[in-house]
Amino acid sequence: VDMHVTVELKTGRQYRGILQSAEMNLSCILIEAVELTTTNAKDSKPKSSHHNTADHAAGNNYYRTLAIRGAQVRYIHFPKQANLVQSIKQGRERERTAANQYRRGVRKERKAPL
Question: How far apart are CA 50 and CA 48, in angstroms?
Fold first, then answer.
């Protein structure tokens, strides 16, 4: 997947990072994620939208890897230029390949030792 996204939780918290994986129930894993903060309760725009040194100076929490449960997700904001149809097709093909590789009852042939 490897695209920058912003995930908004039902609690109002927002995290921006690189989407490493996602599931159909909206559970996702972000890498290099930053918790975005708002300037006040009325303003929902984040102070920062990209991870940089200003994030640490602003007191934003940084996470190398962040797992988010799908039940907590309100929105996932994708970039405008994201080709979601192609990403979904690639993901489904990866799942199909993995399922075929590890089908129950199918064993890999072992090579005889030399």
Answer: 6
Tell me the residue type at 64: R
Is the overall model pTM greater than 0.90, yes or no? no
**Strands annotated E in the chain:** 3-9, 14-22, 28-36, 62-68, 73-77
Task: Work out the number of other CB atoms within 10 angstroms of the CB of residue 45.
Answer: 9
Position 42 pLDDT exceeds 60? no
DSSP structural state of residue 76: E
